[in-house]
Every structure is written in structure tokens, then in C-alpha cells.
Amino acid sequence: MLRPAFRWVRRVQPGSAAGAFTSRHLNNSASTAAPDNDSAPKLPPEVTIVEVGPRDGLQNERTPISAESKIGFVNRLAAAGLRRIEAVSFVSPKWVPQMADGAAVMAGVDRPPGVRYMALVPNLKGLEGAVSAKVHEVAVFASASETFSQRNINCTIAESIERFRPACAAAASAGLPVRGYISCALGCPFEGAVPPAAVGRVAEALLAVGCAEICVADTVGAGTPLRAAAALRAAAAAGVPLLRLAAHFHDTYGQALANILTALQMGVTTVDAAAAGLGGCPYAPGATGNVATEDVVYLLEGCGVRTGVDLERLLDASDYICGALGGGRLPAAGAARALLLRRRAAAGAAAQQ
Ligand SMILES: CC(C)(COP(=O)([O-])OP(=O)([O-])OC[C@H]1O[C@@H](n2cnc3c(N)ncnc32)[C@H](O)[C@@H]1OP(=O)([O-])[O-])[C@@H](O)C(=O)NCCC(=O)NCCSC(=O)C[C@@](C)(O)CC(=O)[O-]
């Protein structure tokens, strides 16, 4: 059984901010107010959502998206209250053409106080691009699976760590904190099951090269709560403090929210999500989108956990990027889809009056 390391509970009082949130977004037949009884999940009072839509969400889109649209998306996410946004990557444009305009995107985004932009970098060259673009944080990305490492960044896990070493040193000199992703931590599209011990080894190596935060990532979105807990426990046992662990779950098998609750009950307080559930990795066949930010906000605020995100403004961002992607794009499911459809129906009805 999973034993929560932390026992934070925040109960929602009628009329509180979280209560007001639920009444605006629910039908009369349902309520997300946290039950005032001992069966309520033990959750932290607040959670940081790292918005990865502009990078992980868009990198796999086949049709080129203009820098202007990416900038409009990022600015709306910041306006919605998201305070850490993975906006771009500086990777080889031959490998991921969609992300080739990272410098132009970063040159165009608003920089409101308190908003931190992050860039994904695979090596020193990428780090140099990120520093020039004046991001606030960078992320390197290793894998717990050898095959995925080869397919995604064309080197072994050990070689990837050696590439990160100079990049992390240069980031430290530039004053940029580094996040280290562990991709395929809950399973690999090529190797299948990934042992938690592999996650622990990579976590230890990423810490050793200077990563300040370790992000356990379910790249294929096939993990379940027990597998999520085992991977997070392995990273924690390798020496990563719970408050420096982040959870990144794709939702291919519809397990992401359950996995997030598990992570939060263990004491993790940082989770990744992408507006409108965008996403997928070009080198992870079969994997679909990230857990939708709307779904995470809806769940957490409904459980009395503060996210700082304004759901209406988040929908502005999702509506905007879905429009830019064209083809009548909508989130696949969940609160993200329901809320966006409801908003569009209301706008349509208002236009007819
Ligand atoms: C790592 C490499 C570069 C190795 O690629 P390579 O071909 O082995 O390396 P190379 O050093 O021979 O470089 C090839 C070319 O790329 C250039 N290059 C080299 N580095 C850079 C750079 N930073 N920025 C711009 N250009 C770069 C380099 O200069 C050269 O250019 P050329 O001489 O041929 O004209 C390549 O494999 C790569 O860029 N891979 C990135 C793949 C990627 O972005 N995948 C998606 C992100 S990972 C992910 O989605 C998972 C995650 C993090 O989200 C977690 C989760 O969801 O679970």
C-alpha cells in the first residue's frame, strides 16, 4: 500500500475561493467541494503546475505553427496565472522542425513579473541558445530506457549524462536552475516495462551533474498509480527530496489524473500539464497528449488545492491555440473538452440573440 509521506489537508468551506470556482463550472447535480470527512484525500494545500503545452504540446504537430501563434499562446498562459511555462526547446531543427523558432518565440513573449520561462536543451549548444534567449530555467532530458535514449537523442543514457555535464555547468554559471527529465520512467514504447531501479540510477546521475529538480515522466502515458508511485519512490530513494521532484504524465491510457493524485499524496508538489491536453513526443510512437491543464486545475481546485490558475483565462489560451491549429481541433476528453465546448456553445447562443 502507498503510505503518504505528507498529511496535508485543506478542506473547502462553502463560499471559499475554491467553492466559488466549483459553482461556476459545475451543473447543479454535482459538486467538487472537498468532502469534510476523514476519507478526503491527503493533499498539499497548493501545487505548482508547470505548463508544458508550448513545448511538449506543440513539438509533435505536423503542420508548422507560426511563432506569432506560439507567442499568443504563451502570453495567454501567463495571463491565466501559470508561473512556470516550458515555452520552447533548443534542439536540432533536423530532429524537431516545429521547435526551430525558439529564439523568435522567446523574443516575442511578454515577461510579466513572476512568470518563469523554461527551455528544453539536449546539450551545450542548446544551452547557449537558451541563455541567449533569456529564459529563466532550462531542462535536460535523459531516459530510463536505452532504446528510447537512442531514438530520441541518438546516444546511450551514459553518453547523454556526459553531454549534460557541461550544459549544467554553463547553466550554473549563467544562474539558470536545471530540471532533469527522466523520460520513459513508467514504460517504454520499445522496451515495455521499465524497472524502477533504472529510474533511480538516472535520478542519481542527473542530481550528480547539477539538476535542481528531477521530473519523472511517463512519456507513453501507460503508467498506473502503483507504477507511478514505484518510479517516484525510486527517484526519492536515489536522493531527490520530494519537494524537488516533479511528475509529468501523459494521458494515453486515461491514468494521468489518478497518477497525479498518487504523486501528491506522496508529497510531490509540482506537476506538469499542457493546456487542451496537447502533446506527444515525435520519438514515442503511440503516445498521445499530456494531461490537460484544465483537467488538473479542475481536479485540484475541486479538492481544495490552490493552483493559482484562472480556469476561464486558461480556456482563452486553449481556445486560441486550438483555433491556431485549425481543423476544428478540440481537447480529446475530460474537463478541457467539456469546458471548451460549453464555452463555445454559450458564445454561439449569445451570437444568435
Ligand atoms: C541531441 C541531438 C542534437 C543529437 O543529434 P545528432 O544528430 O546525434 O547530433 P550532432 O551533434 O551530430 O548534430 C546534428 C546537427 O544538429 C545540430 N545541433 C546539435 N545540437 C543542437 C541544438 N541543441 N540546437 C540546434 N542544433 C543542434 C548540429 O549542429 C548538427 O547540425 P549540422 O552540422 O548537421 O548542420 C538530436 O538528437 C536532438 O536534437 N534530439 C532532440 C529530440 C527531441 O527534442 N525530442 C523531443 C523532446 S523529449 C520528450 O519529448 C520527452 C519529454 C522531455 O517531454 C518527457 C516526456 O514527455 O515524457
UniProtKB/TrEMBL annotation:
Annotated pathway: Metabolic intermediate metabolism; (S)-3-hydroxy-3-methylglutaryl-CoA degradation; acetoacetate from (S)-3-hydroxy-3-methylglutaryl-CoA: step 1/1
SUPFAM superfamilies linked to this entry: Aldolase
Stretch list, region Disordered: 20-44
InterPro entries assigned: Aldolase_TIM, HMGL, PYR_CT
This protein's record includes keyword Signal: no
Gene Ontology MF terms: hydroxymethylglutaryl-CoA lyase activity; metal ion binding
Alphabetical keyword list: Lyase, Metal-binding
Composition-biased stretches (Polar residues): 24-34
Enzyme Commission numbers on file: 4.1.3.4
Catalysed transformations (reactions): (3S)-3-hydroxy-3-methylglutaryl-CoA = acetoacetate + acetyl-CoA
GO biological process: ketone body biosynthetic process; L-leucine catabolic process
Residues in Pyruvate carboxyltransferase domain copies: 47-315
Tree of life domain: Eukaryota
Family: Belongs to the HMG-CoA lyase family.
Name of the molecule in the record: hydroxymethylglutaryl-CoA lyase
